[in-house]
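A quick aside before the break. I want you to see a complete sequence-to-structure record at least once, exactly as it would be stored in a machine-readable document. Don't worry about memorizing anything.
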Amino acid sequence: MAYPLSWTSSQRSLEVLQRALRLSARQKDPILRARARANCFALHLWQEWNHQDAEEFQNAFADIVNADQRGVLAPYLSDRGFISWISSEYHEARKNLIESRAIQFEAVDENPYLDAAYVRGRFSLTWRPCVFWESGKRLCERLKTQLPCSTRTPTIPGGRGCTSTGPG
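That is the input. The structure line, written in tokens, reads:
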């Protein structure tokens, strides 16, 4: 709800995020609590930079990573990539965004539809194509052998898409 609200009222969106943070504090499952907190802090940082929120996101992200559930990491890696990018940590941003994309493509059989994490990662990757080009090119080469491009065609910075003669 906070994201669509941000299109019309940043203040109202930030209020919703604060309420979500208060509600997430009641969550008994520590991983679900960390995921909710990471989402809230990431969305807040998309609207307004705050060093403390960036640290809180990193703390929640660490809890998610420590849970050792690779399949759920993609959206948080994408958000971490964005936060690293706005913090001028371009190498770290590239690493997180590429890893997020790789996890998403590993799960193509479970969910063939692109999600918000893919969109956020694609958006952030295009900001600095010269920084991301080499890793994106290597990822595309890896993907050529892992999935048919008729199922999903990843696009790397510079507008070059993955092509494949695989099934599909």
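Two observations worth writing down. The radius of gyration is 17 Å. The longest strand covers residues 155-156. We'll return to this after the break.
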